[in-house]
Amino acid sequence: MIADTSGNTVVTDDEGYLVDPAAWDETVARQLADQERVDLTDEHWQVLRFMRGYYEEHRIIPDARFVMRFLADELGYGRKAQNYLFKLFPYGYVKQACRIAGMKRPRAWSTG
Question: Coiled-coil annotation: which residues (predicted)?
């Protein structure tokens, strides 16, 4: 069971993705990260906040290439951004980053 900052139960689907991305908060993210055995660092939080901001602005889940561009341009990883993304989320962008960021599971995916 997952609860938000207020103690309200947050519903996930059978694969552990949030049913309602609006229910996400940092408490939920920490619980999801614990389930994935990911220790959240400042860089994880920067990626998660970027993903949430992109989702809020565009109403779609950011493709991995947008996150890699963020890592390259904003965090200075340049050409190593893809490798670094998978260092942060070793079991994959969709499985870990999207889940921890409170996104619904994408139906189809391109890593473009």
Answer: none
